[in-house]
Amino acid sequence: MVTREQLEQAMDQRFSKEVYEKFKQARICIAGLGGLGSNIAIMLARSGIGTLKLIDFDVVDITNLNRQAYRIEHIDRPKTEALREIIGEINPYIKIEVIQKKVTEENLAELFTGEQLVCEAFDNPEYKAMLVNYLLEQQPETIVVSGSGMAGVGSSNRICTRQKMKRLYVCGDEESDAYAGMGLLSPRVSICAGHQANMLLRLILGEKES
């Protein structure tokens, strides 16, 4: 078993102590644990984020395996628990909070009050809008990093990070819609997830995006 001290020494070799301490003290809430959210969570765990709050109501389906972080052994298990297991294999010392619940208009305040950094990673555009609008309108201290447009096999160079409002960053090409007959495939989904994870790390370090 790798000890906490060994993992922290390894992190110290990759980051300055100041950067690693900021990551270790950070807390990020991820809403939706599909192709975006599952990959984002793993990227943040590998970066040393101290606390991850994972929210999803769904279970792993065989159709998820082409782009999400799960394995065959996770089929029919709650995504929250499967992802907690995966992250535990990477770094068992990260604090993981899981909420196996569907996000609705009625429980938004219950689930997100007090969260400073929220990563929106829903598949459904209506739920995306519901969550982002609530956080921007009702929680003035919350910064949102959202994903939009990563379907198909279009050029990866079209996927980028844009600051749409003072507290809203959107990653993706904002055009490629899976619901218009374009499937979601691992490469572009993973690229968009990387943009979201990287933006969250930049925000923790006090950086912004134009």
3D structure, described in words:
There is one protein chain. The protein is α/β, with parallel strands linked by helices and 210 residues long. The chain has a single domain (4-204), classed as Rossmann fold (3-Layer(aba) Sandwich). The chain is built from 7 helices and 7 strands; from the N terminus they run H-H-E-H-E-H-E-H-E-H-E-E-E-H. It has a 7-stranded mixed β-sheet with strand order 3-2-1-4-5-7-6, sandwiched between helices. The mean pLDDT is 94.
Outline the fold blueprint.
Blueprint: H1 4-14, H2 17-25, E1 27-31, H3 35-46, E2 51-56, H4 79-90, E3 95-100, H5 108-112, E4 117-120, H6 125-138, E5 143-147, E6 160-165, E7 168-172, H7 186-204
For this entry, give a set of tags.
single chain; 210 residues; alpha/beta; Rossmann fold; seven-stranded mixed beta sheet; 7 helices; globular
CATH topology: Rossmann fold
> What is the SS-derived class?
alpha/beta
Given this structure, which CATH class is correct?
A: Alpha Beta
Distinct helical segment count: 7
Estimated helix fraction: 25-40%
Largest sheet: 7 strands, mixed
Distance between the termini: 43 Å
Which blocks of ≥5 consecutive residues have pLDDT under 50? none
Strand content: 15-25%
Q: What is the domain tally? A: 1
| Shape type | globular
CATH superfamily: NAD(P)-binding Rossmann-like Domain
Strand order of the largest sheet: 3-2-1-4-5-7-6
